[in-house]
Amino acid sequence: MMTLLFVAFALTVLSCALMVILHRNPVTSALFLVLTFCALAGLYLLLQAEFLAMVQVIVYAGAIMVLFLFVIMYLNLRRDVEDGVPFVLRRGIGWLLGALLLTEGGLLLARRWAPGPTSEALPPAVGNTAAIGQILYSRYLFPFEVTSVLLLVAIIGAVLIGKGRTQAPPGGPAA
Q1: How many Å apart are CA 143 and CA 162, to the nearest integer?
Q2: pLDDT digits (tens, 9 = 90+) for 70-82
Q3: Which of 14, 50, 52, 175 is the most buried (most CB within 10 A)?
Q4: How is 117-131 classified by DSSP, letter by letter?
Q5: 64 belongs to a structural domain
Q6: What does the alpha-carbon distance between residue 15 and residue 9 come to, in Å, rounded to a whole number?
Q7: Which residues form the domain of 129?
């Protein structure tokens, strides 16, 4: 039963992630990303990481995706204009980088490379949430802070982009 659930969630994650990339409409891509996050939360539940599953649904599928949809609709993104050499060049570079990423992943799997720390185990007497907090604020404090600075820069960039769209050009008609 667990294997069947794992296969179902894994196929959902893979198919929805592909739909995020392949869809031309940005709103539809964002909604497929929500489905990807929810299926990923199901995988976390199968791993008995209930806290991570709930954080995945509440923070990513909820708050972050609402922010993404707000920015997409605010910027009024439309479909890509498919014209000439720049489009073919972008598409070719994208396929080349995708093939390079797949090749690198295949080489890492062939060498039996394992991601993440392997020597440090979680203390068995501590609960799931407490163990995550201890490791997050001790061993992974620097990446956690870098992520917060990156999010701050993204928010400032979104505000500046939005502010630039609402202001009249210099020398233009006054409202």
Answers
A1: 29
A2: 777 777 655 555 6
A3: 52
A4: -SSPPPPTTS-HHHH
A5: yes
A6: 10
A7: 121-166
